[in-house]
Design goal:
Strand content: 5-15%
Radius of gyration: 33 Å
Largest sheet: 5 strands, parallel
Helix content: 40-55%
Number of strands: 5
Strand order of the largest sheet: 2-3-4-1-5
Length: 456
């Protein structure tokens, strides 16, 4: 480590947790006992702590500023905040947003004001759980420099942290630990804390169970050691882990990121990737009916009339799941996902609808032409409702060539532009033929001229 970090960390340290002062350290959870004491021992987050990276440079300079550490559980947010505080030689004060209120914040500020010669780092774990009033309570004290605020959150700060507080802090994104990181941690724990042999197959199983979460890996290892007579093997890890749950939060970033990935894989005609993301969401606990609703949207948005069967199959899959439930109904969702991802794509329906809505919002409310109005009463007939209407089924090929169906006051518009893919290619050819008939008919002197006309 550089001299900056060494000097800061060589000072007498406050324990990372009050339980470190207990006489029997083995009574504490393994994950707590394995917290790194220096940045040199920190595993992961090389994009922040590697040579020349931002948090490494802060630590080497012995400074710290207000920040939000955003990342999934078990990636070292709390430990990293504490080590940065120690490197800067600040007073450390921590609160949990789950338990603390405005009164606790005020007490922490008052305590910070009692150390006028030293900066105080106020660490807020799960800062996203503080409401607006509680977050606002920090602002004047952060601005005056009374405290340096470090918040830790698993939720997107853009949505969960007040804009005013966010503007006074830098956001650092922590990443899930890799399989290599997990292997380093569990091997270190087995050697330094547990004095147990760890078979390679057990390490691989711990990597899978952890799913990027160091705390989960170490907690599972601790239980596996209790189950093993001698060396820890894969079977002990499996028994210790119980049911494994992947990263998924049913409403946070992981949820929306994964449904976005599923949608994009369908749009990108990648059926295997689409099926993977569907499996990830269902495995994580997503409501299958939510997926079903999104599939219906995908069918119209990304396939449309290139293959109208996609919409019907999506609705059928939705209905099948409602009838069968899990797990039988999930197969229908998988069938729909694979179909939607495999057929020709077109966004012409969505583009046409968006264009029509945009035109309507900026245009006057033109009246319906009299010839298209119903005339169920004598008065309406006297007013000319329905007069001059051409009944399409009485025309050749059931098409009233030359008729205009827009309001007479507005020009012709072309919102729907079919692609040349799938069934939509045939639709495009038919519409082109009909428009040719319109042009030919409208050029005839025998046809009544309507108002409107070509698109300007």
């Amino acid at each position: 480590m550089s001299s900056g970090i060494s000097q800061a960390t060589s000072q007498p340290k406050q324990p990372l947790d009050p339980t470190l002062d207990r006489a029997s350290p083995s009574s504490r959870p393994l994950a707590d006992r394995m917290r790194p004491r220096t940045l040199a021992d920190f595993v992961g987050q090389e994009h922040l702590l590697g040579e020349g990276r931002p948090l490494r440079e802060l630590a080497e300079a012995g400074v710290v500023h207000s920040m939000i550490l955003w990342g999934p559980p078990g990636t070292g947010k709390t430990t990293l905040a504490r080590l940065l505080s120690e490197a800067a030689g600040t007073v450390w004060r921590s609160l949990s947003a789950v338990l603390a209120g405005v009164r606790d914040v005020r007490e922490a500020i008052a305590e910070a004001e009692s150390f006028p010669d030293r900066r105080t780092v106020l660490f807020i774990d799960e800062v996203h759980r503080f409401n607006k009033a509680q977050q606002d309570a920090f602002l004047p004290h952060v601005e005056r420099g009374t405290v340096t605020l470090i918040g830790a959150t698993t939720e997107n700060p853009s949505f969960e942290v007040n804009a005013a507080l966010l503007s006074r802090s830098r956001v650092y994104v922590l990443r899930p630990l890799t399989a290599s990181h997990i292997a380093t941690l569990v091997k270190r724990a087995a050697e330094r804390e547990l004095d147990v042999e760890l078979h390679p197959d057990a390490v691989r199983e711990l990597q899978s169970v952890a799913d990027g979460d160091a705390r989960r890996a170490l907690n599972t290892l601790e239980v596996a050691v209790q189950l093993a007579a001698h060396a820890v093997e894969a079977e002990h890890v499996l028994e210790a882990s119980g049911q494994s749950y992947r990263r998924f939060d049913k409403g946070g970033d992981a949820f929306y990121d994964q449904i976005s990935a599923l949608h994009k894989a369908v749009r990108g005609s990648a059926p295997d990737a689409a099926l993977y993301w569907l499996a990830r969401m269902l495995d994580g606990g997503c409501d299958p009916l939510y997926v079903a609703r999104r599939l219906v949207r995908m069918a119209s948005e990304d396939i449309g009339n290139a293959d109208p069967r996609g919409l019907q199959l999506s609705v059928d899959a939705w209905d099948a799941y409602r009838r069968l439930g899990s797990p039988e109904g999930e197969l229908a969702l998988a069938q729909a996902v694979l179909y939607l991802a495999s057929v020709p794509k077109s966004n012409a329906v969505e583009a046409a609808f968006d264009a029509a809505m945009a035109y309507v919002r900026k245009s006057p409310s033109h009246p319906v032409p009299a010839r298209f109005r119903n005339a169920p009463t004598a008065l309406m007939r006297k007013l000319g409702h329905g007069k001059g209407y051409r009944y399409a089924h009485d025309e050749e090929d059931a098409y009233a060539a030359g008729e205009r169906y827009f309001p007479d006051e507005m020009p012709d518009q072309v919102f729907y532009k079919p692609t040349d893919r799938g069934i939509e290619a045939r639709i495009a050819a038919r519409l082109a033929s009909l428009r040719d008939q319109d042009r030919a008919m409208r050029s005839s002197p025998d046809v009544p001229k309507r108002q409107g006309g070509p698109e300007p």
